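Appendix B, example 12.
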Amino acid sequence: MERVLVTGGAGYIGSNACKALAQAGYEPVTFDNLTTGWADAVKFGPLVQGDLADRAALDTAFADYQPVAVMHFAALSQVGESMKDPGLYWRANVLGALNLIEASVAAGCLDFVFSSTCATYGDQDGVVLDENSPQMPINAYGSSKRAIEEMLIQFGASTGLRHVIFRYFNVAGADPDGEIGEQHEPETHLIPLMLDAIEGKRPELTIFGTDYDTPDGTCIRDYVHVTDLVDAHVLGLNWLKEGKPNRVFNLGTGQGFSVREVITQSGTITNKQVPYSEGDRRPGDAVRLVSGSTRAETELGWRPARSNMKDMVADAWRWHQAPPYAK
């Protein structure tokens, strides 16, 4: 059985990717420092507890498991935090990725699937964001991901490293089977925060900014179900195995929902009232981020089956009521 090294495989997206890889016939090997990930989420292959800052640990993992490819999810990803402490994001995300890329090349593991973000596009209100849109990140999180994309291009030119880069929009939902889901400490994502408020785990949801230039004054985002997202990553891995060229793909539905629309629809789906208050804008938040590209569908054959608000909220709600991962 071929192995794939999955950095951040104990996290929300990474653990779902491990399940998708296992279903596709691979053995996922999770490499995670468990700072934000959960050992309980590692269910589909071995766990190597290590940090991307530790090159020796990476070299050992490559030598022990001899993966045929890397899926790189591990990163700090909070926009607000990146605005307050950009150095933290440059050190953790960029230097960690550099160690990983160099270790991968040294081991002869030359197929690399990278989890990037639509935050590399910045705030381009009213512009259709496809893969050719200019990248103008407005926070250190987006800038760090953009830098890693550039590293992959340059290492590819000099070493033969091959890559697929996925720039994706807001990820939501949970494993429909209920095995794994979204759990962060602290939680910063809209839908789980909203479900916490519904259940009384927090007093209310805060809407950050109600004066944006949108129909209802709140930010608009494109939401993608996590299982659809990781299915694309497996297709991206197959793309590389088939010898196809380096490629960038947006992963979005082309449909945006405002914060107020998500609250309204979620209340209907859960049949619960969503308590909320209104607060100030957060630094670094874009007005509108919606994908305008269908490249992943036309070239990869990607079909996002569950990326509708009903399934995303219902799956997240089901997971949210289950016992959480152990601390």
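The mean pLDDT is 93. The radius of gyration is 19 Å.
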